[in-house]
Amino acid sequence: MTWIRGGPVALDSRNITEAIDSSLRRLGVDYIDLYQIHWPDRYVPMFGETDYDPSRQYASIPMEEQLEALGKGVESGKIFSCAPRY
Q1: Which end of the chain is less congested by CB atoms within 10 angstroms, N or C?
Q2: Could you give the 3-state DSSP secondary structure of residue 4?
Q3: What is d(CA 25, CA 54) in angstroms, rounded to the nearest whole number?
């Protein structure tokens, strides 16, 4: 995922938590009003592509893990609301 700062290998719980904490530090705030994931960790047609190509599918982090990490951010008070864009 080279389009994400530092190009993490996966959008797993550890990387989501690290991204939340880094955002808080960069912004100099105690919580984030809305945290949104624009790039889910799964194959989707991007950048003008309109057709899904099943041959490009790869092993990905389960959506449940990603949502659980966002939920922990909300529970800990670091995020007021989250909205994954799937």
Answers
A1: C
A2: coil
A3: 39
∠ CA 17-37-78 to the nearest 5 degrees?
40
Residue with tokens 């994400």: 4
Position of tokens 């950048």? 47
**Total length of the chain:** 86
For the entire predicted model, the pTM comes to 0.70
60, amino acid identity? S
Radius of gyration of the chain (CA): 14
Distance between CA atoms of residues 21 and 68, nearest Å = 16
